[in-house]
Amino acid sequence: KMSLETIISDAIKTAMREKDRVALDSLRAVKAQILLLQTEARGAEVTAEQEIAILQRMIKQRKDSYEQFTAQGRTDLAEVEEAQSKVIEKFLPKQLSAEELESEIKKIISETGAESLKDLGKVMGVASKALAGKSDGKSISEMVKKLLS
Questions:
Q1: pLDDT digits over 85-98, tens only?
Q2: Which of 13, 15, 103, 105 has the most CB atoms within 10 Å of its CB?
Q3: Cβ pair 144, 121 in contact under 8 A
Q4: How many Å apart are CA 139 and CA 36, to the nearest integer?
Q5: What's the predicted TM-score (pTM) here?
């Protein structure tokens, strides 16, 4: 299986050939984060989970910036953030639909024997690991709360 770093490097070459500024900026930012993670790992293997977490964090940062820029009426800047998050999202595993997420979390709730919101932590722990990369933390948390309420 090709590493995310290799996949991103190939995508950077394509973006350069196509003179796709947005993709280039987004991909270079991702590559920088991966290299940083490898440096911090000091030769240890960087896991797929860690790579997914980087991508999710970068998408979240761009979505947050998008909201801030939109609130300030800076649609030009907001559009760049949105375009970048779309580029980065392509490298995540396929995201679960709301229905798929609900059914996965229902399974986890029955497996953990959770009954109410006081079991939130137990369910979140399992769900976050099981669904890493397939859904973001906020969506998982909202669904767990909805189903436990």
A1: 999 999 988 889 99
A2: 105
A3: no
A4: 28
A5: 0.75
